[in-house]
Specification:
The protein has about 300 residues and is α/β, with parallel strands linked by helices. Helices cover about 25% and strands about 25% of the residues.
Length: about 300
């Protein structure tokens, strides 16, 4: 199907991210239905019901993380043959997957489509041999979703698959995307603040990767000054990226990016609909992130290094 043609889409989930996908896909001119057991505006109460009653070209799974594997399995069981986008993280824990008939499948690590990340990947070879990289992301959870009580959000609840490691796993995907598989890692993390949540609010990870000897990643729900930065050092200098300020530097050269909050999501949908694999996070890539999260939790619990 040509990228410019309208496709029939069903979005599973009517929370904040599901609503964003609905809005963007409608703006792109596609026919959008919604699956939700709780939303009065949803056309279907379950994904099984939707697949039995209507034919879809594209399914977006934007349910709670703890529901992803069930929804993914429902598509396989119903022999769905269209395109699939599953929100990140892929699953709340590692699962073995059965074969599927999907024509194209992607996982929602949309930061890969941010122009600063595309610039970073293109510029990275100019650094030469890499020595270290640091990823830092922090945002105060009560301000994430202004219209929602943070204590009732999926981020705040273990049972929903929340917590910084899963909510902010973009950085874990980007580390893998840029530097290859990790070889060994250690971590420290937990709930250290007075936020009224049952999930971890802070994690710091140190790892060694195939293409970079020292990679550190810090994630938190606590920064009341929102930050999302990447710094990479190599033999030929330093690259820094500010994903909040939409800017980057390679030594003394600065680059500015004009980008809205929806742009990376839009680019991701266009790529899935066009069956374009460039910048896509595959299911295989995303499974590695799920495995990495499990390794990070083991390292923190046992206070030791974990190897692949």
């Amino acid at each position: 199907m040509a990228p410019g043609n309208s496709v029939n889409v069903v979005v599973v989930g009517a929370g904040s991210i599901g609503s964003r996908h609905q809005r963007i896909l409608k703006q792109l001119g596609h026919q959008v239905s919604v699956v939700s057991a709780n939303s009065p505006n949803a056309e279907f109460k379950s994904l099984s019901d939707a697949l039995e009653r209507q034919s879809f070209d594209y399914v977006v799974i934007a349910s709670q993380t703890s529901q992803h594997f069930h929804d993914f399995s429902t598509l396989i069981r119903n022999k769905f043959k269209g395109r699939v986008l599953i929100e990140k993280p892929l699953f709340e824990k590692p699962h073995r997957l059965k074969s599927n008939l999907f024509s194209f499948a992607a996982v929602g690590y949309n930061l890969r489509f941010h122009p600063a990340i595309i610039w970073l990947k293109d510029t990275l070879p100019k650094l030469g041999q890499l020595s270290s990289a640091n990823f830092y992301v922090g945002q105060y959870l009560p301000t994430w979703r202004p219209d929602t009580d943070y204590r009732e959000s999926s981020s705040a609840q273990d049972i929903s698959g929340g917590g910084v490691l899963r909510d902010l796993s973009h950085e874990l995907d980007l580390a893998q995307h840029l530097f290859g598989d990790w070889q060994r890692l250690t971590s420290i993390g937990g709930k250290f603040s007075d936020l009224e949540i049952t999930t971890d609010d802070t994690f710091s990870i140190l790892m060694s990767a195939t293409k970079c000897n020292v990679v550190s990643v810090h994630l938190n729900y606590l920064d009341q000054i929102k930050q999302r930065n990447i710094t990479i050092n190599g033999n030929n200098g330093t690259i820094s990226v500010d994903l909040v300020g939409n800017s980057a530097r390679f030594n003394e050269t600065e680059v500015k990016f004009s980008v809205s909050a929806d742009d990376s999501y839009t680019a991701q949908h266009l790529a899935v609909i066009a069956n374009d694999p460039q910048n896509i996070c595959t299911v295989g890539d995303a499974l590695k992130v799920v495995d990495t999260i499990e390794a990070i939790e083991i390292a923190a619990k046992k206070q030791k290094w974990v190897s692949q």
